[in-house]
Each structure stands twice: as C-alpha cells, then as structure tokens.
Amino acid sequence: MAEQMEEGLRAVVLGWQKSDKASVINRLLGDEVESDRHFARSVRKDGEANGRKITLINTPCWWQNYGLQDSPEVVKQELVCSVFLCPPGPHVFLLVINLSLPFTEENRFSIEKHFSLFGERIWRHTIVVFTRADSLKDKNIEQHIKNQDLQQIIQRCGERYHIFDFKNKSVGVKELLDKIDDVVAANNGKHFETHDDMLLEIKRKRDENEVRAKARQKTLQDKRDLLKEIEGEEAVAPLSKVRIVLLGWSLSGKSSTGNTIFNHEIFPIGKAQKGTNHTGDVNGRRITVLNTPSWWKYFSSKFNPKFAQAAILESISQSQHMQFPHAMILVIPVDTSFKNEQKKIIEEYMAILGEDV
After folding, report:
1. pTM to 2 decimals?
2. How many Cα neighbours within 13 Å face the side chain of 227?
3. pLDDT tens digits for 167-202?
4. What is the architecture of the domain spanning 2-195?
5. Cα angle at 282 between 276 and 284, to 5 degrees?
6. Residue 304 and residue 297: Cα distance in Å, rounded?
7. CA distances for 338 relative to 39, 71, 144, 345, angstroms
8. pLDDT over 70 at 303, yes or no
9. Contact between residue 153 and residue 54 where contact means Cβ atoms under 8 Å apart
10. CA-to-CA distance for 182 and 271, rounded, in angstroms?
11. Which residue among 171, 185, 235, 340 is buried most deeply as judged by most CB within 10 Å?
C-alpha cells in the first residue's frame, strides 16, 4: 500500500462504444478532460481525485457485440499496450458498463474475449463501474444487475462493482476510490504485473508497426522535399488543381472523409447511390472530390455488378470534373475487422478501374 500512497493510483478504463468511459474519467478528475469521440490510441490523463493523485488510461473502444476475432489488430494492440502507459503497471481496471443499454450474452462474450488479451490475472484487478442508473427510472438497480450475464461478469471480478452516481459526484468518487483501495489491498498492495511474455510480445509488434509507419512517412516527405528542391515552386503549380476520387464500402466513412477535406458538411452521410462531387479551395489549392457509390463490405462484386461496379465506373467516367483524377482515396475504417474476404472484394472493385489505380 505504501507504493500506492506515494505514487498515486493508476487505473486503466475499459469498455465498448457508448459505455460512458469518458464521463467516468471526467467525473473522477473533476473537469471535461476527455471526450466520447472515437480514437485508436490509448490516452493518459493525470490529475487529482479527492486530493489524491490519480492516473487514468482511456483505451480504444471495441464494438459492443463484436467478438475478439472481429476487432482489428490495432485496437487489440492498443488495449494491451495501455498497461505500459502507467508504469510500473495499473493498480486496477475499471470496466464501464452503461445501464441504459441492454446487456446480452454476446456482450458478455465480447468482454471475456477482449479481457483474455491481458491474461486471467486481469479479473483480480477489475471493478465493474455501472453508469446511467437513472435511466432505469423506477426499476430497482440491484434487481436489474441480477441479469445472468451481468452476474457472470461481476462474479469473475470477485463481486466488485460500483454504481456511479453522476449527480452526487463527491460521494460517488470517494466510494469508488475506497473500492480501488480494497482491490489493491486484496492483491497485497501489488499492481497488475506487465512483465509478462504475452503482453511484451504484443507491445513488440505494435512498436515494430510504428517504426515501419514512421519510416514510410519519412520516405514520402523526403520525396516531396526533393521534388520542391529540384523543380522549385513550378513543381507545385501543376498540382494547384487536384482531383480526388473516394472509394470504399458502405459505412466506411467516405462522406466523412470528403467533409473533413473541405471542413464542411458537403456530402450527406449514408450509402451513396450515385456519384456526387464538390469543388472548393483547401489550403490555397483548388480541390475537386468525387464521392463514388458504395459497395457492400461482405458481398462480392459478382453478386451485384450493375448496381456497384458499373455505378462506380460511370460516376468517374461521366463526371466532367473528374477526367484523369490525380489520386484515389480508399477509405477503410480502423475500428472494424479487415480479413482476407474484404481484401478480395476490394481488389475486385478496384480492378474495374485498371491496373494503374
């Protein structure tokens, strides 16, 4: 317990999308320091709670009903590597569950599978934190959490859970801190041990991926710098008008990508049935973006050639603004699975644009 008192508490906050992780962190630290936006990297927040130093690690969310096999490698790696952001290791894991959402057997499986990334020891350090108890209205909270699947999760955590009261903040924070102290005491004052071969191997893979990504980025920047150095400012002039085509499956984020480029709500969110384009000034350059019709993530092109393949090709060839586009942006959401099936489907749709694409 001496280590805990000297260095403060260290906690990793886990949960799926809409689990209310950000709200719990903000209440503990007493400020709006975290948002509910989606992110792919674990984030460390340091502060004080009831006069005690506390470090909270907010982790990337997994999808509520996704099994471990459906979570992308980047999310799994970041979940595990969260424990290395608060050395020598977290005292506790806070599993946040939103009571306003139904809890099913699939949700329980999803939690258990994602927790398996850390090894069986994680359950000895975990407290379930329930939020949005007010959404139950007249229902008895204790009765509600007797849901069979919820009970299995609570039991695996040694019956440790906390109903977070957002209205009575000071009381809710103090009670949670007391329960964290109980977890530390139950583990003889020891934190979650990170010197584990399985955890270190995942961290090694993540670090190698980052090194390769930085190397690719540096190579690209070196080529840009060389182009400017050799041809001077004239080299940039031909690129002052840039034509970009967005490609991707339904709900991949093509429209959001186009809106981000223009920093304005240009393309409506949803499944594009036909190609739409927009031209505007971005960073002093004239940019035209074509948002092409989407294809289905799991359906091969041969099942719907007229609707998808022809529509994509026609949207590019018939657009007067899009003759000879400079770049194709293939949009792939990082928070969903990507398997060999998706790779083959993408290659089928890209093939209709020729090898040069």
Report:
1. 0.71
2. 12
3. 766 678 899 999 999 999 999 999 999 988 999 999
4. 3-Layer(aba) Sandwich (3.40)
5. 140
6. 12
7. 17, 9, 36, 11
8. no
9. no
10. 50
11. 235
- The continuous run of DSSP H or E covering 55 comes out as strand 52-58
DSSP class of residue 8 equals -
Best CA proximity match to 277, nearest among 320, 234, 219: 320
Contact predicate 296/250, CB 8 Å: yes
Instruction: Write down the residue that tokens 């919820």 correspond to.
Output: 150
Tell me which DSSP letter residue 40 carries.
Answer: S
- Where residue 37 falls among pLDDT bands split at 50, 70, 90? low
| Fold exhibited by the domain 240-351 | Rossmann fold (3.40.50)
- The ranges assigned to domains in the chain are 2-195, 197-235, 240-351
CA 105, CA 118: separation in Å to the nearest integer? Answer: 21
Residue carrying structure tokens 């508490």: 9
The predicted structure's pLDDT at residue 5: 47
Asked whether this chain's domains 2-195 and 240-351 adopt the same fold, the reply is yes
Q: Identity (one letter) of the amino acid at 241?
A: K
Give the rounded distance of the alpha carbon of 290 from its chain centre.
27
Residue scoring higher pLDDT (79 or 16): 79
Average pLDDT over residues 5-31: 85
Rama region for 50: left / alpha / beta (φ>0; ψ in -120 to 50; rest): left
